[in-house]
């Protein structure tokens, strides 16, 4: 309410005395800031944690931009310190670097190898152990910092080889997690069936030394040749320098199966790039040479892909529907 102005004997203009119900000029001036803060609180906020490899970081950055510009969410890409320093040489690797108008942010976490991993002297198995231990502690710090800044994370997304992120997110009150599957979707099916009964057949075929040896790995599809399956699945020796990857993928598959939202586990989603119109034929052709008929449909597939990724296309609609699940109520 507005009170009547006080009358004074001097020729001074009347003084307008406002009650606490009337915003002051200072409050009015700050209302756009308050409105912006309110809008931020009503946005879904995705923390995308990546492995320190360009093949992981680049897709994560693309996903962040799509979440922001295509679905109206906020996104923070969280990379190891070594990668952060290469991306932002002028920064100290500790702060969030804003870009794209402040909607996409970058934060650093430590994997225990802040100077980078040296293939010539460092051990992959030890690195993965350090990554899960030190990484869990420092990603937790990023979650706390974002919450303290008024930007709590509503969904934690992680790229391959980082299944421990799910536990960190759960312990810090994040509502859901998502795996960002940066390989072809059919590779996910191959990994799943490998760890759910297909391992012995794959190992036997790979151990034969014949790259054309066939194995029935994907139910309902023709046999795959050894050279057609993901190369990590063809590892037959624990002494292989990349043998550590198999245990990480095994843990990831276990995490996905547990991620139904029950038993204290967070709901787990899988974000994957797939093109249905093309994939049906591609899957049918696995293990066989590409026929002229299939090759001749490349132009049609290209047009369908263009429509799918265009503004308002199936890709954008699917992503927007996913984001709406995490908008704070």
Automatic annotation (TrEMBL):
Segments for region (Disordered): 1-31
Source organism, top-level taxon: Eukaryota
GO molecular function: quercetin 3-O-glucosyltransferase activity; quercetin 7-O-glucosyltransferase activity
Family that this chain belongs to: Belongs to the UDP-glycosyltransferase family.
Descriptive protein name: Uncharacterized protein
């Amino acid at each position: 309410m507005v009170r009547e102005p006080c009358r004074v004997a001097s020729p001074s203009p009347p003084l307008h005395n406002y009650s606490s119900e009337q915003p002051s000029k200072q409050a009015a001036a700050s209302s756009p800031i308050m409105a912006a803060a309110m809008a931020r609180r009503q946005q879904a906020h995705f923390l995308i944690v990546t492995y320190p490899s360009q093949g992981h970081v680049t897709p994560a950055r693309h996903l962040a931009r799509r979440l922001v510009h295509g679905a109206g969410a906020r996104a923070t890409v969280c990379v190891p310190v070594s990668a952060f320093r290469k991306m932002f040489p002028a920064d100290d690797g500790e702060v969030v670097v804003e870009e794209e108008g402040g909607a996409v942010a970058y934060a650093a976490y430590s994997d225990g190898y802040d100077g980078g991993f040296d293939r010539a002297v460092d051990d992959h198995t030890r690195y993965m152990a350090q990554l899960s231990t030190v990484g869990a502690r420092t990603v937790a710090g990023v979650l706390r910092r974002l919450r303290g800044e008024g930007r709590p994370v509503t969904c934690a997304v992680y790229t391959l080889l980082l299944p421990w992120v799910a536990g960190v997110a759960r312990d810090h009150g994040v509502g859901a997690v998502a795996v960002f599957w940066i390989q072809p979707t059919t590779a996910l099916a191959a990994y799943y069936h490998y760890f759910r009964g297909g391992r012995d057949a794959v190992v036997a075929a790979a151990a034969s030394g014949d790259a054309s040896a066939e194995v029935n790995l994907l139910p309902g599809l023709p046999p795959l040749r050894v050279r057609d399956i993901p190369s990590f699945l063809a590892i037959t020796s624990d002494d292989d320098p990349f043998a550590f990857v198999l245990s990480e993928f095994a843990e990831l598959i276990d995490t996905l199966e547990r991620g139904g939202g029950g038993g204290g586990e967070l709901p787990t989603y899988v974000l994957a790039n797939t093109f249905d119109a093309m994939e049906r034929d591609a899957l049918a052709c696995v293990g066989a040479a590409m026929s002229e008929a299939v090759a001749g449909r490349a132009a049609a597939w290209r047009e369908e892909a263009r429509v799918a990724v265009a503004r308002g296309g199936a890709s954008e609609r699917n992503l927007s529907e996913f984001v709406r699940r995490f908008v704070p109520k």
